[in-house]
Amino acid sequence: MFSIYAIELENIWKVFPGNVQANCDITLRIGEGEVHGLLGENGAGKTTLMNVLYGLLSRTSGTVKIRGKEVNFKSPQDAIRLGIGMVHQHFKLIPIMTVTENVVLGAEPLYANLTANLKYWRPSINPALPTNFRSAEKKILRIAEENGLQIDPYAKIQDLSVGLQQRVELIKILYRDADILILDEPTAVLTPQEVDELFETLETFRKEGKTIILITHKLREPMTICDRITVLRRGELVGTVKRVDTSREQLAEMMVGRPVVFRVAKTPAKPTDTVLSVENLHVQDDRGLPAVRDISFEVKRGEILGLAGVHGNGQDELVEAIWGLRKVHHGEIYIEGERVTKYRPRKMRATGVGYIPQDRQKQGLILDFTTKENLILGGQHEPPFATGPRGFLLNALDITNYSNILVKDFDIRLRDIDEPISTLSGGNQQKVVAARAIGPNPKLLLASHPTRGLDVGATEYIHNVLIRMRDQGVAIFLISADLDEIRNVSDRIAVIFKGELVAIRTPEETDERELGLLMAGEQRAIPSEELTQ
Amino acid sequence: MQIIDVLFWGWIIQATLTLGTPLVLAGLGGMFSERSGVVNIALEGMMLMGAWAAVAASWYTDNPWTGVFAAIISGLILGAVHGVISVKLKGNQIVSGTGIILFAAGFTTLMLWVIWGTAGASGQVITLPEVRVPIIGLVSPLTFAMLALIPICWYLLYRTPFGLRLRAAGEDPSTLDTAGISVENYRMYGVLISGMLAAIAGAQMSIGFGSRFTIGMTAGNGFLALAAMIFGNWNPIGTLFAGLFFGFLQAISYGVQFAPGWEWLIGYSSFINMIPYISVIVALGIIRRSVPPKAIGVPYIKEKQV
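Predict the joint structure of the above. Result:
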């Protein structure tokens, strides 16, 4: 089909220590100038495969050919030299450094007149010669100009939005003159509008003849932009299909291994009395700047209120303030009429609130503790878990029994509740976090990004748990960056932008485009004909 | 009276420079190591070893410059040990550092016996030729070296590929790795430079303003240097001022014992000797918050399941 293959991966095996097979016998050929989608659930081995190609990981066996020539990369430097560039899912940028410093890292330009004079012993002292930052800045500005990726080379990464950071990553690759681009989940952190912008950029790259590999677990993206799509499942290659010959449903089935229902089955909500009521809340972020401005809303028994917003618009500060982790600057919070503004998390828990924190590994779990210990965290100080005089002993028997019940109820797959929680998969870890929040039968559940980084199966499970709880009369406040999740699960959708609630809608009366505009702060100031296009 | 004042303050400046030099040098060393992501509490041990090596080499050659050279070699060796343990073998950096401190203390004590047959102090050696500066008085050449190193280190750290990569290794090693640069190499460079500078700092203590080696002569100066580096926010200029400030406090605690009009303080000299240490705690704890390199103390393991 292609006259030249840009990349040929033949019989690639990658086995991690502990006999974890991340890639089993994968053979994949990608043509020059092709946009190729690499689709699969989390843990399917997509990123591992690309890291092997990029020289970041060594392969256990198999051959890699670039433009027909067999290669053996020892480090990414070798891959970069052959024109391969990779944008990682978690950006490889150093927040405290400038755009220019980040772009040139590892490929720093020197002063030509200086290096010419020193050419005999140059290579060894090269890095200790002055960097020619001026020429680097010029080149960055030229790349930015040519590709429509406007950027300030002097800005520090920490001051840039996520969309702009991704732009820096793209510039970093172009700076190294790469013509094979690997993008790992590039859209995970972007708003719908930013995604469109990114795809436009990729379209121009395609016209320039660059080869692009797009790693994703979302179905819509490869269907918009890719020529061919390869699906991986549990480290094995399921198949490669042309976009024109396939459908979302077929891809989903290949990815999960069974037919997938896209919409969560749920009945209309029957909200009753108010549980959580937030009034004119003001909260500051870590730097003391206003993060939440004058937010008021209510969550009723038996409904799910979803909060949509681009990461960093105050949603994390809002939920932390409700849970009592962050000081309320101004305003009040009530639970069933009880003023809880100044309650700490322990008291919030006692009042009947459950909390699923946004980052399960950093805030949700203690990775070195056992599953059992993690399941009772937060309740360890009170009966039945605490026993003896002044509750200074742990009641091992009750803890084990309680844990076993939760493990069964939530279908947590593990070998032993006495093993460290770090041995569990991400999905099962998240089930532990959810089980701990839901176990004490709360009136209100704060769920912050409850399915971040989970595969389709685990996501479906968590969604069903949320809806089941709603039907049992729990009030649920769901924060998520995933617009599909918000739209599928919520009964009402609130949109936050720069710390303010810009709209509350029901899923029926809005669409993705409107939500996207609201999240980007553009509201409805746009002429209506443009909206209907 | 005025002449005495000038003499006194000249003496204070001289003492500040003399006592501050090892702190700044070792602090710069600590900075290179920590900027690359490796905690180096072994500074104390490296200084002690450098101090001993400088005296031993001067003793046999009657030339203090070979002493400085020997100190550099000893620092590189200890740096290599710390580097291999904590960078190559991913060992615990604090344990490795503590081990080096204890080793240096034991080894130098033993070598005192072997070379000089004494338990407390070595024989006297020739010191580095001092330079006379108006008003201030005699200044060790290593002090000038230290002052010259500040802009060099700054330039190296902020204006060269080497510095950029070194800082990247300490902030986010996986980013450096992705850029195709070996994290291990740059961390090794950082630790080696660290050992070298700490050992020169030790040489300043033994053959810069003394003329012999005594047991445990660094007396916590390595830790004080570490504090100067933290107080100076892991940057050369900050380290210079912090190191000189601590040196100044030490100078004051000596100076009050003969300063005109301050004789009444002599009875409290033990308390005055505490000033530098107390002020370090106050300075670090209250005055400002420092931001350490992000990936400091964490060994970088490349082949990790992602």
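Confidence is low (pLDDT under 50) at residues 524-533 of chain A.
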